[in-house]
Structures are given as C-alpha cells and as structure tokens.
Amino acid sequence: MGPISELCVCIAADDCSPTADGSGYTGRVSVTKSGIQCQEWNRQIPHEHQYAQEPSVAGAVNYCRNPDPSTHVDGPWCYTVNSSVVSEPCDVLLCGLYIDME
C-alpha cells in the first residue's frame, strides 16, 4: 500500500457528511445519485412537504440535507424537480472515507 495521497481523492470537510445518516451535512451537493436536480426546500412544487420550516434546511436552497434522520437513514437526500420522482438520496460521502483510485 502506498501513501494516502496516491490511493485516495481527499474531499473538503463541507463536501462530506460527518454522520452516516447525513443529519449533519451542510455541503452543496444539489443533485441526486441518479442526476436529478433537487427541488428548493422552501418550495412546495412539484412536491409538497413539511420540511420548509426545519432549521436544518434553513438557507439550504436546493442542497441535499436530511431533516428527518428517523425516516431517511441512508444519508442526505432531497425532493426532486422531476414531478414523477418525489425524492432520492444524494451521493455524499461520509467524512473520513477515501476513494481508492487503484
């Protein structure tokens, strides 16, 4: 095994989630794992939701978040702008993990 710099792509702390459930994520990913743009949290179109007043999404624009880790245990997610797809998880790494480049 070589030095870490040869084995991984290190990411900035605000681009990863400090918790596995994504409840502490404050980064700027705004697309789902499948590439769909996220709906703004303060909007109710195309999908109505109860999270617009949640402190964890205040100022989040359309960034992935997890305002309810009790029901979304797999990390940050968002409502999508696609009227056929209500919500999806986002591709946000857990802080401290490294991507093996070999």
Q: Which features characterize this protein?
A:
globular; 1 helix; 2 strands; little secondary structure; 102 residues; disordered N terminus; 6% strand; two-stranded antiparallel ribbon; Plasminogen Kringle 4; single chain
How many β-strands, per DSSP?
A: 2
**What's the end-to-end separation, in Å?**
10 Å
The CATH architecture would be: Beta Barrel
Reading off the top of the CATH hierarchy, the class is best stated as Mainly Beta
**Regions with pLDDT < 50 over 5+ consecutive residues?**
1-10
Percent strand equals 5-15%
Mean pLDDT: 85
What is the spatial order of strands in the main beta sheet?
Answer: 1-2
Task: Tell me the helix content.
Answer: under 10%
Q: Could you give the order of the helices and strands?
A: HEE
User: What name does the CATH topology carry?
Assistant: Plasminogen Kringle 4
Quick rundown:
The chain has one helix at residues 4-7, and strands spanning 77-79, 87-89. The protein has a single domain (1-102), classed as Plasminogen Kringle 4.
